[in-house]
Amino acid sequence: MKTELFLISLLVINVKSDFCLPSVTTVSGSRAGKVFCADQLIFEDNFDTLDLSIWQHEHTLTGGGNYEFQYYCNNRSNSYVEDGVLHIKPTLLADEKGEAFLSSATMQIYGGTPTDQCTNPNHNGCSRTGTPDNIINPIKSARIRTFESFAFKYGKVEVRAKIPAGDWLWPAIWLMPKYYQYSRWPASGEIDIMESRGNRDLINKATGENIGSKLVGSTLHFGPNSNFNRYRLAHFEASLSEGFNAEFHNYQLSWTPDGITYSIDDEVIGAVQPTHGGFWQYGDLNKTNLENPWRGGTKMAPFDQEFFLIINLAVGGMSYFPDDVINPGGKPWSNKAHSGATDFWKGREQWLPTWKEDGSYHFLVDYVKIWSV
Ligand SMILES: *[C@@H]1O[C@H](CO)[C@@H](O)[C@H](O)[C@H]1NC(C)=O
Ligand SMILES: *[C@@H]1O[C@H](CO)[C@@H](O)[C@H](O)[C@H]1NC(C)=O
């Protein structure tokens, strides 16, 4: 009897799969299953636990290429799961090591096993000596990624998240290429699903626009080299008067062999659909007289290769927070100064009170879901 019931349910499943549309999605990694059909859920994490066999932590002082002020580490004070929600919470390194440590110590984070090794040595990312003018990264935070567990090419992504409110916080949900098929950044592309600035009242002086937590951005980075990154042609923004920090929202990416569409809560905020000339033509790159690194790819190149997912909370840095802004209490550092981290830390009376005790400065992620297309 049991067997019969089992057979019947198998039949039902088979009937359903007759409607299976073939998928163009490919997947790889230790958590990659078989992709049979389009519209199949191929990755899901509801953060009932923080599963480190899915999410590998970055462990580095490198500063993300922008001299950002955070030290990314694997520590349950900075990344943890509570009531089915991932929290990334920035903390002060001085609370752990003491104030003098920042300007006088040498911090080495090489690590001795594959799990605690330093993950990025660029810009003294594995060893730093603090000086009064250039202190050690004063904020501890987290960046997690699916580099080993899950990469995919083409799909639909939905991340339900609540962005943090707090000055100079920079949350991001993004994808990076697994193999750099078309050479180093940005030639192999970068897909930023969501990034924002935590300041509640950050105003662009020139436009009067709130560029803080009332604004989120989505961007494709692509170009033959970093001098010709054409991201401005694929940058989209959405604004919300109550702020994106007030509620959870669904940040969505649809990525197919025809184009890339960004949405929030099912509302499209921007799309790129290259013609047969691909991103070379879309970026008007022929006039650079450089060699087209994507010439062997499809019209979606460099976005026709597998990418993996990254979620992080960065702080400050020398590029993302413009100097020409109005902010309550001002901006404690200049992007042109070499003493950015020191000036930021010395100015903490300005920003630390905006990281409120109610925890609204935590970056929260409810779930990540990815479907095949
Ligand atoms: C984790 O972070 C907390 C808070 O900063 C600190 O007290 C603790 O020592 C850290 N643990 C390790 C193993 O570094
Ligand atoms: C691109 O530029 C090269 C010379 O730099 C030229 O020969 C070629 O026709 C151009 N292609 C297009 C599509 O404009």
TrEMBL record:
<feature type="signal peptide">
    <location>
        <begin position="1"/>
        <end position="17"/>
    </location>
</feature>
<dbReference type="Pfam" id="PF00722">
    <property type="entry name" value="Glyco_hydro_16"/>
</dbReference>
<feature type="domain" description="GH16">
    <location>
        <begin position="17"/>
        <end position="373"/>
    </location>
</feature>
<dbReference type="GO" id="GO:0004553">
    <property type="term" value="F:hydrolase activity, hydrolyzing O-glycosyl compounds"/>
</dbReference>
<dbReference type="InterPro" id="IPR013320">
    <property type="entry name" value="ConA-like_dom_sf"/>
</dbReference>
<dbReference type="InterPro" id="IPR050546">
    <property type="entry name" value="Glycosyl_Hydrlase_16"/>
</dbReference>
<keyword id="KW-0732">Signal</keyword>
<dbReference type="InterPro" id="IPR000757">
    <property type="entry name" value="Beta-glucanase-like"/>
</dbReference>
<dbReference type="GO" id="GO:0005975">
    <property type="term" value="P:carbohydrate metabolic process"/>
</dbReference>
<comment type="similarity">
    <text>Belongs to the glycosyl hydrolase 16 family.</text>
</comment>
<protein>
    <recommendedName>
        <fullName>GH16 domain-containing protein</fullName>
    </recommendedName>
</protein>
